[in-house]
Amino acid sequence: MKKRKILIIDDEEDIRTVTALTLETVAEWDVVIATNGKEGIQRARQEHPDAILLDVMMPEMDGPTTFRNLQAIAETRQIPVLLLTAKVQAVDQQRFADLGVAGVLFKPFDPLTLANQIAGVLGWMD
């Protein structure tokens, strides 16, 4: 796979650590970390990642609100966003799909297949 840069926005340290380690080790992607939505928006503007992996449930600014803010900024609007969530109810999935995100990935995830899941959703099979 081509070298990619992924921004992980998640308030849970364990999830950030496992996700970053997985994507750096398995896919050899560069990983940028943000611990909340506000920081994530700043990092997206600074780092111009190839994609954003965004947690849904975060304090202060949740994932859907962060996504809407990213969409309102010209320089981050085109960055594909994948939501990472434990919410698997059909109504939640439909709400996330209606946002216009590139995809939704579910917790818990298999660290060994996460990079392939992301690449598959985004069409990065190169």
Question: How do you describe this structure in short?
Answer:
One of its GO terms (biological process) is phosphorelay signal transduction system. The protein is of the alpha/beta class. It is 42% helix and 19% strand.
Write up this protein.
By secondary structure, the chain is an alpha/beta fold. It has a single domain, classed as Rossmann fold (3-Layer(aba) Sandwich). The protein is built from 5 helices and 5 strands. The protein has helices spanning 13-26, 37-47, 63-71, 90-99, 114-122; strands at residues 5-9, 30-34, 51-55, 81-85, 103-106. A 5-stranded parallel beta sheet has the order 2-1-3-4-5, with helices on both faces. Helix 2 (37-47) runs parallel beside helix 3 (63-71). The radius of gyration is 13 Å and the shape is globular. It starts with a strand and ends with a helix. The mean pLDDT is 91.
Low-confidence parts? none
The CATH topology is Rossmann fold
CATH superfamily: Response regulator
Strand order of the largest sheet: 2-1-3-4-5
Measured on Cα atoms, how large is the radius of gyration?
A: 13 Å
- How many structural domains are formed by the residues? 1
Main β-sheet description: 5 strands, parallel
β-strand amount: 15-25%
**How would you classify the helix and strand content by structural class?**
alpha/beta
Ends: how far apart? Answer: 5 Å
Task: Give the C-level CATH assignment.
Answer: Alpha Beta
Mean pLDDT figure: 91
SSE sequence, one letter per element: EHEHEHEHEH
Helical residue percent band: 40-55%
CATH architecture: 3-Layer(aba) Sandwich
- The gross shape turns out to be globular
Say how many strands there are.
Answer: 5
By DSSP (H or I, 4+ residues per run), the number of helices equals 5
InterPro entries: Bact_response_regulator (IPR050595), CheY-like_superfamily (IPR011006), Sig_transdc_resp-reg_receiver (IPR001789)
Organism: Acidobacterium capsulatum (strain ATCC 51196 / DSM 11244 / BCRC 80197 / JCM 7670 / NBRC 15755 / NCIMB 13165 / 161)
Pfam family, one: Response_reg
Protein name: Two-component response regulator
